[in-house]
Amino acid sequence: MEDERTFSDICGGRLALQRRYYSPFCREFCLNCPRLSLRSLTAVTCTVWLAAYGLFTLWENSMILSAAISITLLGLLGYLHFVKIDQETLLIIDSLGIQMTSSYASGKESTTFIEMGKVKDVVINEAIYMQKVIYYLCILLKDPVEPHMISQVVPVFQSAKPRLDCLIEVYRSCQEILAHQKATSTSP
Amino acid sequence: MVLKAFFPTCCASADSGLLVGRWVPEQSSAVVLAVVHFPFIPIQVKELLAQVQQASRVGMAVLGTWCHRQQEPEESLGHFLEGLGTIFSHEPWLQLCRERGSKFWSCKAIHRQVSAAPDVPSEDQVMLIFYDQRKVLLSQLHPPTVVSDHQDGDTMASTGGLAVVFDTVARSEVLFCSDQYDEGPVRLSHWQSEGVEASVLVELAKRASGPVCLLLACLLSLISAASGCRLWKLWPLPFIRSKLSTCEQLRHRLDHLTLVFSTQKAQSPAQLMRKANMLVSVLLDVALGLMLLSWLHSSNRIGQLADALVPVADHVAEELQHLLQWLMGAPAGLKMNRALDQVLGRFFLYHIHLWISYIHLMSPFIERILWHVGLSACLGLTVALSILSDIIALLTFHIYCFYVYGARLYCLKIYGLSSLWRLFRGKKWNVLRQRVDSCSYNLDQLFIGTLLFTILVFLLPTTALYYLVFTLLRLLVVTVQGLIHLLVDLVNTLPLYSLGLRLCRPYRLAAGVKFRVLEHEVGRPLRLLMQINPLPYSRVVHTYRLPSCGCHPKHSWGSLCRKLFFGELIYPWRQGGDKQD
Amino acid sequence: MACSGGGGHGQPSSAILSPVTPGSLSTSRTRAHSICMVSDFFYPNMGGVESHIYQLSQCLIERGHKVIIVTHAYGNRKGIRYLTNGLKVYYLPLKVMYNQSTATTLFHSLPLLRYIFVRERVTIIHSHSSFSAMAHDALFHAKTMGLQTVFTDHSLFGFADVSSVLTNKLLTVSLCDTNHIICVSYTSKENTVLRAALNPEIVSVIPNAVDPTDFTPDPFRRHDSVITIVVVSRLVYRKGTDLLSGIIPELCQKYPDLNFIIGGEGPKRIILEEVRERYQLHDRVRLLGALEHKDVRNVLVQGHIFLNTSLTEAFCMAIVEAASCGLQVVSTRVGGIPEVLPEDLIILCEPSVKSLCKGLEKAILQQKSGALPAPENIHNIVKTFYTWRNVAERTEKVYERVSGEAVLPMDKRLDRLISHCGPVTGYIFAFLAVLDYLLLVFLRWMTPDSIIDVAMDATGPSGAWTHQNPDTTQRVENDEVLDTPR
């Protein structure tokens, strides 16, 4: 019911995909990003403090040092709370909806739930991202007025950015549930 | 389709009995609202359901049976519960069972009529979803569903799936009014309010609010009638009123108060929230204003301010004089047209002289004026700030004048130059068609045009310098006024009540729901916990922002720079709207 | 394939009639190529280059090759799109500088272009139009990456003024180590060979084509009581709009039964409007403004005579389209125009008001006397001349030849740049090429080729695109509706 595989993200980093099959109509996919590494944290802190110390020797104002310390602390807190996402989860429940959760490094969670009635399809799309062309998984939402049109495209796994092989894995699973949903909803 | 049973968490420990709720066939979901305990008489249960249905306009029915095995399993109960299905016929018939010592529940949904053989009831896949009845009842979904027709509850089913659940629970509030300890004919188990604390006070306030509102509304209508009087419509007054930010702010506040104290009941929750927000905003405003007032009137701060004000105005005028003298020489080493430079400089110097004498004429009265102005702070901080903005505008009137003169001159030159440049190239602006046409000029026209062009080109730097300096001064004043205005706008529009509600009762403002998969065992139905997903703060502010005075900067930075370059007049934000109409 | 340097000038219609020389090139096709067309100019922008790229790509797809197109973003149209038959277009978010051409720093486009070339497993880069900075950038980067390159020149240039001297120098640099160059007419080939100091042996002539089924005559749409002259071109200096403004009043005074229909938009439109107002010709001169490509035929069939006043033209597609619609064509004798149509279908004049008026009068006389062949006959003659299938076949042979050639390694490339482009420019660009190579090495270190996802092929031998229902079988679905251009 539960297994774990490793994939890589578009920059070559390691990602762990956990799949949990609770029942035939409820599946969960969990992408774990690598944690904040001590090395990069030390590097950033050292750079800021060295720069601050350089300025301090230039101007001889101790305010600079205290400012540097508070900037590092606040920056770290803000980064952990608002930027660094440790885990992204996609929960798909037949005839109920799709739920996306991203957990930040500080423990904050932000959840979006999309009801099945609004979901048109789940597809893999291509996009130009920074200096790269990447594949991403996205949920297409129905336009409430015209059911054949797409009103919005909601990207999934926005921060982890897994590669195509991982996306295809998730995509197939989602399509199975969507196909079941379509089959049963047309003939109740 | 998978059958979804929504089950309230408060009923999880109830005794065995019947499940009462609503069946939504479109989504094949059963919303359980309450559990009816043994013993009961089927007729009475049906009567109760009919009563509730009439009051709430929600199709209520007995959905199935609930079996809570606290003691040793009883064989007879199972048969008895199955037999109930024949009394209360419902399609499908739910059989929910909680076993002792086991965390997992069993749930079956049985179709009777559909299956070919009546002896073998067909079973569906079932999913159990627990929800907190109280939170779902009190929460308000965002964005609110537009359909709010009270005639028939069943048309609601066409709107989104979960909205139906919320709607069902919210409408069957009647069901929850009956007390658990009442000795009614039917015993129910459902969520129960524990009673409001200090309910006497609340009750008193409720009783008092009606007359108070009526009284205040009368007062406010008197004030608005007085302000609508014909005397105020005489010529200069409306003009002045439209220019003074204080008047705008006062009118804005008056509107707020009339809305808050209007005796009509709020139609929708959004409107109620808006009223509460306005009231809190006004109260906070007045509280801050009173604090300012007490600070001002303690230890003669007004006198100190008044004493400081005149020297400051003098100082500003002096600095301006220095600036003008610098401009009349060779500013930054630029060589200007001497004659024009002198004329402009003297003109402005004379203006400053006039201004200083005006200030000195005023100086004996300034303290008294300030004292009265200070009193206005009891109407609110925003009013005091608006008055401050107006005072700044009045005290820097000379800078405004300089700016207008400079801008007009500069504008004239720029337009002259651009049309003469067209003449230079054998083109002209066609007013009728709004485009540039080619045109052949005769020799005299070309000669005069060229001469004028040369003169204008050589005089341009002098004018442009004056324009630049005074525009910078003007921009400084406008920036200060803009900041004050932003502060006023912030107090005016911030939905404090909604923010407080989000902070203390996050479930009241729901952005949606989230699900958590509970522990699961193979062969048992899937159990999910439905929780309320609170609205993020940014969305709260966005949704419940009170309307501002409608004086946002209308032009972007690009158009502002363009206007500055072509010498068109820019105004602070308040007048921006009026001018562009 | 006419790739030898035989002078085709002064020999009208030789571009069409020159037979495909069989030889080592025309061996049977062994493999499908993966081709990337790069140009700044593509739909929704309108013009000759755009339709050339589109039609050529469609015919190559039909022949089983994999084709993608790379261009820059047009307004809201950015990202990746699929056109008819799974033609994949990358609209890259690069800044447009002037005239729909991107600004170039020679380096900033490398990361994206490299990523695309790697993920699409491109083997041949085919750049279009010498005005397009992106095309030159792509050539430069492709050579750095060791890919085969082909360039198609669509325009003619002068040699005298400052701007053309500079452009020619850049073209020399850009083309000196390009594998193969394609020109659209012999005049254009001569011009390009001279400008870029090329070996004529690596320059082929493949003319443009029109889709004859799109341009069919319809004689009932025109009124035979009056004679209508049609002009369809962008209203810019290069297309001779100033000449047109001289011709209109002169002819309108002479012939009271003469009407003009002018389609197209541009900065010179104001001149025509002024002429119309000054001579009170509102009922006789109709200005239609910008035309969509699908409307061009409906405009053409309303006229009897087509007038082309271009001052420079490598291969004029407009006159072929007009002739295909059965119109008598009057044109200036510039650039590659004399090669395009046989003499009995076109009246050639010098690019002056007087000469053009004379030519038009001759055409009007012929029209009035009924000496002209029927539109259907003209159409039947013209439709055999230029077809896209033929163009695609000939282009395929170029690809075949190019894929057998070796790409110059870095040291040889530097030698060639220095020896071929003059001492100063050569060293500068050799230095830039080295920088480009270093940047490429850096990028390969940052994101190795192995972690770039290989894109799903929509076209080509393993193409996933099907004609019946591209939505369901396509794993990679596009975000927008599949839109065909036009």
UniProtKB/TrEMBL annotation, chain A:
A GO cellular-component term linked to this record: glycosylphosphatidylinositol-N-acetylglucosaminyltransferase (GPI-GnT) complex
Which part of the chain is the Phosphatidylinositol N-acetylglucosaminyltransferase subunit H conserved domain?
89-158
Q: Source organism's superkingdom?
A: Eukaryota
Q: Which UniProt keywords apply?
A: Glycosyltransferase, Membrane, Transferase, Transmembrane, Transmembrane helix
A Gene Ontology biological process term: GPI anchor biosynthetic process
Q: Where do transmembrane segments lie in this chain?
A: 36-56, 62-82
Q: Name one GO molecular function term.
A: glycosyltransferase activity
The metabolic or biological pathway listed in the UniProt record of this protein is: Glycolipid biosynthesis; glycosylphosphatidylinositol-anchor biosynthesis
Return the similarity comment.
Belongs to the PIGH family.
Name the UniProt record assigns to this protein? Phosphatidylinositol N-acetylglucosaminyltransferase subunit H
Q: Native species of this protein?
A: Marmota monax (Woodchuck)
From TrEMBL, chain B:
A GO molecular function term, named singly, is: phosphatidylinositol N-acetylglucosaminyltransferase activity
GO CC list = glycosylphosphatidylinositol-N-acetylglucosaminyltransferase (GPI-GnT) complex
**Alphabetical keyword list:** Membrane, Transmembrane, Transmembrane helix
Q: Which residues cross the membrane?
A: 276-296, 343-361, 373-396, 445-469, 475-499
The Gene Ontology biological process annotation of the record reads: GPI anchor biosynthetic process
Key word Membrane present in the record? Answer: yes
Signal peptide region: none
Against PANTHER family, the record matches this protein to:
PHOSPHATIDYLINOSITOL N-ACETYLGLUCOSAMINYLTRANSFERASE SUBUNIT Q (PTHR21329:SF3), PHOSPHATIDYLINOSITOL N-ACETYLGLUCOSAMINYLTRANSFERASE SUBUNIT Q-RELATED (PTHR21329)
Under what name is this protein listed? Phosphatidylinositol glycan anchor biosynthesis class Q
What organism does the record attribute this protein to?
Ictidomys tridecemlineatus (Thirteen-lined ground squirrel)
- Print the organism lineage: Eukaryota, Metazoa, Chordata, Craniata, Vertebrata
Automatic annotation (TrEMBL), chain C:
Annotated membrane topology is:
Single-pass membrane protein
Compositional bias, Gly residues, is annotated for: 1-10
Q: What is this protein called?
A: Phosphatidylinositol N-acetylglucosaminyltransferase subunit A
Annotated stretches, region: Disordered: 1-22, 463-486
Name the encoding gene, please: PIGA
Q: Single GO molecular-function term?
A: phosphatidylinositol N-acetylglucosaminyltransferase activity
Q: Where in the cell is it found?
A: Endoplasmic reticulum membrane
Q: Name one GO biological process term.
A: cellular response to leukemia inhibitory factor
Protein family membership: Belongs to the glycosyltransferase group 1 family. Glycosyltransferase 4 subfamily.
Briefly, what is this protein's role?
Catalytic subunit of the glycosylphosphatidylinositol-N-acetylglucosaminyltransferase (GPI-GnT) complex that catalyzes the transfer of N-acetylglucosamine from UDP-N-acetylglucosamine to phosphatidylinositol and participates in the first step of GPI biosynthesis.
Ranges of residues in domain PIGA GPI anchor biosynthesis: 72-161
Query: Where does the Glycosyl transferase family domain lie?
Result: 226-368
The record's keywords, sorted A to Z, are: Endoplasmic reticulum, Glycosyltransferase, GPI-anchor biosynthesis, Lipid metabolism, Membrane, Phosphoprotein, Transferase, Transmembrane, Transmembrane helix
Q: Where is the composition biased (Polar residues)?
A: 11-22
Q: Please give the catalytic activity noted in the UniProt record.
A: a 1,2-diacyl-sn-glycero-3-phospho-(1D-myo-inositol) + UDP-N-acetyl-alpha-D-glucosamine = a 6-(N-acetyl-alpha-D-glucosaminyl)-1-(1,2-diacyl-sn-glycero-3-phospho)-1D-myo-inositol + UDP + H(+)
Q: Does the keyword Glycosyltransferase apply?
A: yes
Task: Give the EC number(s) under which this enzyme is classified.
Answer: 2.4.1.198
Q: Which organism is it from?
A: Ictidomys tridecemlineatus (Thirteen-lined ground squirrel)
Question: For this UniProt entry, what is the primary localization, expressed as one broad class?
Answer: endoplasmic reticulum
| Organism classification | Eukaryota, Metazoa, Chordata, Craniata, Vertebrata
Compositional bias ranges of the Basic and acidic residues kind:
474-486
Pathway field: Glycolipid biosynthesis; glycosylphosphatidylinositol-anchor biosynthesis
